[in-house]
Amino acid sequence: MSFLNKNVSETQIRLKDRLWLYIFSYLILFLLIVPSLVVIPMSFSASQYLEFPPKEWSLRWYENYFFAWKVENGFNDWMQATWTSLKVAILTIFVATPIGTMAAYGLVNSNSRLGKILFPIFISPMMVPIILVAIGLFYFFVQFKLVGSIFGLVLGHSLVAMPLVLIIVFSALKNYDMNQEKVARSLGATRFRAFREITLPQIKFSIISASLIAFLTSFDEIIISLFVAGGDNSTITRSMFLALRDQIDPTIAAISTILIVISSGLLIIIQLIGNKENKKD
Amino acid sequence: MTIAEMEKPNERGLQQVAANERLTFFGLTLPYLLMVTALIVIPVGWLFYLSFIGRDGSLSFENYERMMKSKAYIRIFLTTFKISILTTIICAAIGYPLAYFMSQLSRKWANICMIGVLIPFWTSLLVRTYAWLVLLQKKGLLNNMAIEMGLISEPIKIVHNTTGTLIGMVHIMLPFLILPLYANMRAIDKDTLKAASSLGATPTRAFWTVFFPLSLPGLLAGLLIVFVLCLGFYVTPAILGGGRVIMAAMKISSNIELYFSWGAASALGVVLLVVTGIILFIASKLVSMDQLGNR
């Protein structure tokens, strides 16, 4: 058992003195990851009741999700809600990414006092309690008949995604030497061409991760959707929330499994992109 | 013309050009600012105004007065603060050792552990809440396991109450505490600890007098983010609280969905916003804003 006497820190703490910390930390990491995964076996259960481990396996809840076209229990059809969510999330990428990137580029280059003064406004979507943003938008959208529209949802979700794009692209630009653009311009490139051909390729990966995060933010958003979505345009998270408040429908386990697959997939892509960019430096 | 101006004849012109250029660049932020102004500043400002309109349509403090006198509202404030404070404390108690542990590992292993923190961070909030509902309910996994192992004879109630809400919220908030704290701990120069022990400090003393104070900015940033997010939390208490745990955000929502009472909802929202604002203001004085935005 000599490994127990190995030094594990700068202050000559041996492994056996710190075993408790290792056990505790792995336990917490276990508790962080595993509870969400419990829905995966549940989703393949044949039983209406949630039993673990399931006695019989089936795909009935997936069938229910994909093929139950009728409105059940007064809730919107799941597939329609999924399409709405996908449409809104993709449109959110195309609104939030350019606006956030432009703002980040402008803020880095202008370096003005105005930017610092207005900083709270830039990150206000992250700071103002989201419920307040949601009811504010609801009130606002009622006047313009935007409640229940895709356009209204995209506006609301872009609002939440923009600060994330801003932060990611801003930190990428902070590590980027703007003089490269000046060189290009001194050689006769227009400002836009200098950005497109010199800067953009070098911050490409950050912009891609930012857009994936914008997608995920929109796809997972609940509270704004609760107020702004409605009618035929319910989002998947809204339908799930409304269903959860009342009963535990195992179909939700199936949807949850699909959501876990989507978000872990995107997370892995984002991490890989990050590694690629770090290696490049 | 002074001598200095003669030596740099173009200086004023160059400065003008530079200032113009900065202004052009600032112009790129306009779409962003416009959107935030149109969709947050104006609507929230409007809610602020609504909160001061009484039932008869005149300016008054009616909504706030009613809120301060009502026992139901006072209970909601107390619940909101109680849940937020408890969640923050539990997150700190669990998150600090974990972040410390990760900061002591090699980069490679720390990144692997980081995936463990990031997966729940990016898993849908609803999915995690639903998973806890499945685990904690009366015929759920936890109760069944405890009965089979003979720990309890009757299923105990751990969901649709404060306990369930706390478990779910700690699980959701923990990454928000760990991320800034870990970043801070990683940046601490380990040579300071070596110096402390070479000067004769025991490992415990080196930790408390050197490491812990240096990690405080990260801890504080994490605590404040968690607390502020808890104050406005809606989804998890709504599902895991089972209607028994009513927090401010839920009351705002029901005021509008059920009673169409915009004045009351706005007043509660304004209180929530002001409390959040004060905490974030204090936070910005204590830690740099860069750390707060770090997710």
Molecular structure report:
The complex is a heterodimer of chains A (281) and B (295). With 281 residues, chain A is mainly α. Chain A has helices spanning 19-37, 39-43, 60-67, 78-110, 113-117, 119-122, 124-127, 130-143, 150-174, 179-186, 191-220, 223-228, 236-246, 251-280. Chain A has 2 domains: 2-62, no CATH class; 68-249, MetI-like fold (Orthogonal Bundle), CATH 1.10.3720. In chain A, helix 4 (78-110) crosses helix 13 (236-246), helix 9 (150-174) crosses helix 11 and helix 11 (191-220) packs antiparallel against helix 14. Chain A is globular. The two termini of chain A are 42 Å apart. Chain B has helices at 3-7, 11-27, 30-50, 62-69, 71-104, 107-122, 125-136, 141-148, 162-187, 191-198, 203-231, 235-240, 248-257, 262-286, 289-292. Chain B has a single domain (61-292), classed as MetI-like fold. Chain B is an all-alpha fold and 295 residues long. The interface between A and B is large, with 92 and 91 residues.
Helix/strand layout:
The complex is a heterodimer of chains A (281) and B (295).
Chain A: H1 19-37, H2 39-43, H3 60-67, H4 78-110, H5 113-117, H6 119-122, H7 124-127, H8 130-143, H9 150-174, H10 179-186, H11 191-220, H12 223-228, H13 236-246, H14 251-280
Chain B: H1 3-7, H2 11-27, H3 30-50, H4 62-69, H5 71-104, H6 107-122, H7 125-136, H8 141-148, H9 162-187, H10 191-198, H11 203-231, H12 235-240, H13 248-257, H14 262-286, H15 289-292
Helix pairs in contact in B: 3-14, 5-9, 5-11, 6-9, 7-9, 9-11, 10-11, 11-14, 13-14
